[in-house]
Amino acid sequence: MPLKDLPPDAQPREKLLARGPAALADAELLAIVLRTGMAGKGVLQLAQELLAPPHQGGFGGIAGLLHADAAQLAGTRGLGPAKRAELLAVLELSRRALAQQLAERAVFDSPQAVRDYLQLHLAARSHEVFAVLLLDSQHRLIAMEELFRGTLTQTSVYPREVVLRALHHQAAAVVLAHNHPSGSVQPSRADEALTQTLKSALALVDVRVLDHVIVAPGASLSMAEQGLV
User: Fold this and answer.
1) What is the C-alpha separation between 66 and 123, in angstroms, rounded?
2) What's this model's pTM, rounded to 2 decimal places?
């Protein structure tokens, strides 16, 4: 059914203004961003199809859609250049909002914001990425740097490079992070060994390792909370 044929209080935009965004389903929120459908398909139906599970031709929900890269979006019928640009802009605005929050307060004043920030950056990658959140003496975010890609082991992540980036930013502390494309966030023995290697290397230049966060789509784990840092 076209949106114009829905009762006014059931139309996504009017419903949001009247009841707030939390009252809307994912497809309704996405329909507001997309604004229009395509020939023979209303915007709400388009939104529902985009959020469908991958085996049904969709992206697997909001997280899957917003983490899709430009090439994946370009191959999707119904997403022209304008819609693709809007979706990519939404994701980038989310990243920047969380980065601003982490730059203005100590990261452990808002641990969920740290996890959300890392989710937006790393969770949907198809390959492993190792990143470092570089923090000042008040544990506020200075920068995030992606340093290594591929299978992460003690031999593929070079402590010297991590130390050099910490010194470059005059960081007082760091949060280590990487993703598990497999979907599991349980740390491996290699993850534990790597954490201790980097912790020892950074201690030589008086930089503390506060945590090592592992993320996967829809999940994250703090190794510090597990007593592994």
Assistant:
1) 11
2) 0.74
